[in-house]
Specification:
8-stranded parallel beta barrel; alpha/beta; globular; about 15% strand; about 250 residues
Length: about 250
Amino acid sequence: MKRPIIAGNWKMNNNKEGTKKLIAEIAPLVKDAECEVVVCVPFTDLETARKAARGTNIQLGAQNVHWAEKGAFTGEISADMLAEMKVKYVIVGHSERRQYFGETDATVNMRTKAALKAGLKVILCVGELLSERESKKTAEVVTRQTTEALKDITKQELKKIVLAYEPVWAIGTGRTATSQDANDTIKVIRKVVRKLFGRAAAQSVRIQYGGSMNAKNAKELMAMPQIDGGLIGGASLKAEDFAKVVNFNA
């Protein structure tokens, strides 16, 4: 059985004091979790989060990484810098990075390879716009994004990647794909992995759902056969809500 993974994406929220407080509140609520627990915090909070999570089952994640090891990339953070800070996971290709910061399928692939080279695990996001969904292009879009993101990735490297289906129209809007729709789209993503890496790899890769999963719908979504976890936005900023998602089986 694959171990589910629930990751909180704090986005651009929380200062150091808020980070320390929130992790202190989350830790006792998730200490017996059957799933892997990750919090992906802003870069300025990574060191604080690492110290706050020490001795707990909470793993540390970052929200982005650059593809170059070093150089003239003002404002960017390299994979080696994250690794030095004991970061375990990094989100790559989040819909907000694609929508607001010019992220492309090619740069997602470059960032993914850089992260893997530095020993990081990757939460790799794909998902369609509302217009693409309404045009019935969901399968086409996630197939392309997944194929391009995993270009030149080896079967061994795939073991360090968690895929996340994030319908852009459901991010921060309160709208959520039905559990069946989410399951069906993740099945499409899994078929792409099967085509690229074979049946065993497709069965073992973990694929999260990331479109407004919360305390109320987590149990239903996590009951679907294709869904192996959640990438949680707003609900991850409240300890009790995040814990309810983490403990979806309770």
